[in-house]
């Protein structure tokens, strides 16, 4: 039996996985970290990295020793941005949120069973949380953006993830128990915005609101992050209202409509 299509698909999957790992931060990742995170053997990882570097998709930083994204990725991203003008649409909302609250504001996209942070706008408050930045991925239901999105997905999709929660959440499953996540999802559906009470990193809080596509599905999310004293209960309603107002604005610009994002 000819297995070449399967083998080819496996190689593509491995390459895509390595690119995602390297792209988690501007600093890239060391070979040892890529081996550990990917689950592949060291020779396999090194061979794939070298091939990607020869095509300009990756670079090897001689100072840090890390593998970083290459110039071809920048060119591809520039072309892709013309098709997905999300920064032009989302950046004004991020700036308004950061200016109005003093907190750091973020725009994330759903990719399969994860959220990926795309954009960031720093607030004026001098003490910040550094849990979230461009390229960071979280499983759906983890952190405020992923909670806001998962809460408004169809129940069947929620249950599919919750049914294998430990496998889905991975290292976050210990702090995000299934029962706690269910409670957070229920609260999010009631209020329209999510609250992450320091579950990813103690003392680092976040709030999020979903942005809906033209089909009425939650596809993106706005979020605010900061230190715990800035997210006291008496301030959460104010922050939640601001998040939902901007989420509704972006939803309308993208041609969608989402009940949860309508300012109350």
Automatic annotation (TrEMBL):
Keywords: DNA-binding, Transcription, Transcription regulation
Matching SMART domains: HTH_ICLR (SM00346)
Domain IclR-ED, residue spans: 72-256
Highest rank taxon of the organism: Bacteria
Presence of keyword Hydrolase: no
InterPro entries per record: GAF-like_dom_sf, HTH_MetabolicPath_Reg, Tscrpt_reg_IclR_C, Tscrpt_reg_IclR_N, WH-like_DNA-bd_sf, WH_DNA-bd_sf
Location of the HTH iclR-type domain: 9-71
PANTHER family linked: HELIX-TURN-HELIX TRANSCRIPTIONAL REGULATOR, ICLR FAMILY (PTHR30136), TRANSCRIPTIONAL REGULATORY PROTEIN (PTHR30136:SF39)
Designated name of the protein: IclR family transcriptional regulator
Annotated source species: Pseudarthrobacter quantipunctorum
